[in-house]
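Subject: for your reference before the review

Hello V.,

The reviewers asked for a structural picture of the protein, and I figured it would be easier to keep everything in one thread rather than splitting it across files. Below is the amino acid sequence we used in the manuscript, unchanged from the supplementary table.
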Amino acid sequence: QVQLVESGGGLVQAGGSLRLSCAASGRTFSNYAMGWFRQAPGKEREFVAAINWNAGRIDYADSVKGRFTISRNNFKNTVYLQMNSLKPEDTAVYYCAADRNPLRVGDEQMYDYWGQGTQVTVSS
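And here is what came back from the structure prediction:
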């Protein structure tokens, strides 16, 4: 079992930046690939970014490429999402998730553990 706790969300103006963190506990963090997802009001949850155990494989949604950066620190058991040039359409609850297969960056259904989410609101 892995417990995931997100932090770093908040209210920011368009064009601003935020850095989300997701702290993991319970099992060896490097045994998991990690992903970030988001869900806007009235919409389905969508993929944002993913990173495998050693950052050798990283993937981004087209909507965030060039603006968001996913990274991880296996010594701190934490995955990060640096979000720059934020847009109002980035407003959502952001979730981190852990995949027991550390090698891949997979689809949403492949993730085994989820955090509770952190709200990001971008004002225009």
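For the response letter, the relevant points are probably these. The mean pLDDT is 96. Residues 14 and 124 are 5 Å apart (CA to CA).

Happy to draft the paragraph if you're swamped.

O.
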